[in-house]
Specification:
Elements lengths: L23 H14 L7 E7 L5 E7 L2 E3 L2 E7 L3 H8 L2 E8 L4 E11 L2 H10 L2 H9 L8 H15 L9 E15 L7 E7 L5 E5 L3
Antiparallel strand pairs: 1-2, 1-5, 3-4, 4-7, 5-6, 6-7, 7-8, 8-9
């Protein structure tokens, strides 16, 4: 079958202004809770898109680790490819796609590092293997499997069961300036509600053509 002939009719829901919250964060939490209740696979997985000094976009999947009044939190190696791009251009986009619900959420905003204490607390909550892995991996750099395993052995011997958080590893927070909620509908007449924040911090909402 040609990929051009693969298509699906979206018929599981609708997103009308009368149903949607005027606060995009409340709407996000509503949809996230529904994804959790309906056991959507990897509901906290989100595509993070960044743009570096070369003006070329790059995307990867990361996991949401916090939803706060001032933004969305995730953790990574600060020296990774995404970390290097965020150091040059601190604007990014998050994308959630929950296929079983035929829903998508796009979020744009500015990214800053979380406080060290926040990174410390989350790091200590991680499984030991993940904490040691943060030391062993020079993320995004070329490596050999044997070298990576040897590095893991070395840091395990060095830190044992209580490794400290590496300074090169921690959290980021994306403070949203734009949300777009997408609900699949029949005949490709999908619902798209976009929320944008003005200079005074007030959110405005409008429907976009599908």
């Amino acid at each position: 079958m040609s990929v051009a002939n693969i298509r699906q009719s979206y018929e599981k829901g609708e997103l009308l202004e009368a149903q949607a919250s005027t606060n995009p964060l409340e709407q996000f939490n509503l949809w996230l809770n529904e994804a959790l209740e309906q056991s959507v696979p990897e509901p906290t997985a989100m595509t993070l898109s960044t743009v570096g000094a070369d003006h070329r976009p790059s995307s990867r999947t990361v996991l949401l680790k916090g939803v706060e009044e001032d933004g969305f939190v995730f953790f990574t190696n600060y020296a990774s490819h995404k970390g290097q791009e965020l150091a040059v251009n601190p604007w990014a986009c998050l994308l959630f796609f929950w296929q079983p619900l035929e829903r998508q959420i796009r979020i744009e905003g500015q990214v800053t590092k979380v406080a060290p204490a926040v990174s410390d607390a989350y790091y200590q909550s991680r499984p030991l293997g993940s904490r040691l892995g943060a030391w062993a991996s020079n993320q995004s750099q070329p490596t050999e499997l044997d070298a990576l395993q040897a590095r893991l052995k070395d840091v395990t011997e060095q830190y044992g069961d209580n490794p400290p958080r590496p300074e090169h590893w921690g959290g980021y927070r994306l403070e949203p300036t734009l949300f777009e909620f997408w609900q699949g509908r029949p005949s490709r007449l999908h619902d798209r509600l976009q929320y944008t924040k003005n200079e005074t911090g007030i959110w405005t909402r409008q429907r976009l053509a599908p």
